[in-house]
Fold this sequence. Notes:
With 315 residues, this protein is mainly alpha-helical. It has helices at 2-26, 32-55, 69-92, 95-117, 125-146, 157-185, 191-194, 200-209, 221-248, 251-258, 261-269, 279-301.
Amino acid sequence: MLSIGLILLFLYNILTAAKGVFLGNFFQTIHPFLVLTFCFSLVIIFFSIYNKIKDGRTFATFGSFPGSLRTILFLNLSAVIGWSGFYFALKLIEPAIVTSITSGSGPILTAIFYSLIIKNRKITFFEWGIYSLIAFAMVFLVAETFLGFSAIQNVSSRNVLLGVTCAIICGAANVVNAVLSKELNQKGYSARQIIPVRFYLLIVLGAILCPTATWHTLGDMNVLTAAIVVSIFGLAIPILCFQKGIEITNPLVAASVHATIPVFVLAAQLFDDRLVVSQHSVLGAICVTMFSLIAVVSSSLKSRGIPTIKNISEA
Length: 315
């Protein structure tokens, strides 16, 4: 089961990397909140219909999850913080830097959460060493961005600071999201059943905060087509892969695999004329990935000591 979970999580990486590079370019002309509102509305519709076909009900209301209202509300809040932070970070700094920070912080924050707060898992000295190396690689990437050595030239210090801050906030929100999703999984709800109720707050706030003058851009068929493709192949399918990966592994494994995204993003950046090849970014991203893969192996070897649930249902 662990191997299936890892395959799903790496598939998530590939699709997410392509989406990240594309949106980094897309957001130079399209407002992030417009994309958030439109795309996640389609995601909710897609999975509501899918659930109706599979289960006879949409799972699109809070009442579909009795006794879990608090978890659903916090899941919505973490989605707002995580996705908003991620999208605005992509608008400001290099995609590989964004994904290095958001994904690389995952194993570190998850380890802290489970060992110091939940106290149900002991983190070894070796694992803390690996997480420290991941943190060092992320600091290197932040420093090279401030110094102007990233794949995007001439980024102001203000934008770098805002972009890095958004990425860090996104990484923390992702950890909370993984833990909350796991909690619902353990109550018997599958990944596709959870998805329709987790983005309502994101859509409402996105619609409110999106400048009204930008809505007309959806009338452009190129923009509309791009938004639909992002909704399906950049959001719906990757989200499902990640959720089901969490179901059959554990949040620490999911966070560690998630940390390998930068290498996929670096490859995708080769197809974006807006970006140049940065040796500093390549070095930093490879270091994050290498140390994260070591963390994956370490976590996988200890996974028998962490409660997991079976794959409840096939999507």
